[in-house]
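Marked as duplicate of an earlier ticket. Keeping the data here for the record.
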Amino acid sequence: MLKKFFITGLLVWIPLVITIWVIGLIVNTLSGVVPDFLSSQALFHRHIPGFGFVLVIAVILVTGMFTANFLGRRLFTLWERLLNQIPLVRSIYSSVKQVSDTVLAPNGRAFRQAVLIEYPRKGSWTIAFLTGEPGGEVAGHLPGEHLSVYVPTTPNPTSGFFLIVPRGEVIELRMSVDAALKYIVSMGVVAPPAPIAPVAMPEASDAHLGAR
């Protein structure tokens, strides 16, 4: 009986503690970006919890509003040209910007669709996220159409594997990305609800992206 109560208590507290820990980690990380002369101690001569986090969020919002107009875009373009003139900064900044533009673009395909693929062997299936299509030299060496997918690890989805899979071996899922993440993080315990009109899983060789 005590064991049952203990497990029930864990099920209540573990999600709450992890949620608080993640939020605290985000707040502390963003607060650490604020320089000392903009801290609440320097501005108001007192410590205000969360001031750095609020300041960073405000700066991001103001920057977004400023760069949305013509003058802001013009100044941002000049700033990028300046950064691209610095050898070491140029390589780091351009790489990070390309990734962030691809992942965060509102009309982009990256991480907007959960898919099902056979991995790591034939007969074993896992959930992945569509990130796009291979291009450049890589695409020239691949026969037929392929898709780029990200396979997250469990229970930490921030690490994973990048795979290039034939389009015919990728099955599009109707579940949302949030539902797929919950499924992965919970190691399959929190299963997403079935779609209104379930579709039988086709064989990998006959599956086509977008087929329902």
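See parent ticket for discussion. Residues 109-212 form one domain.
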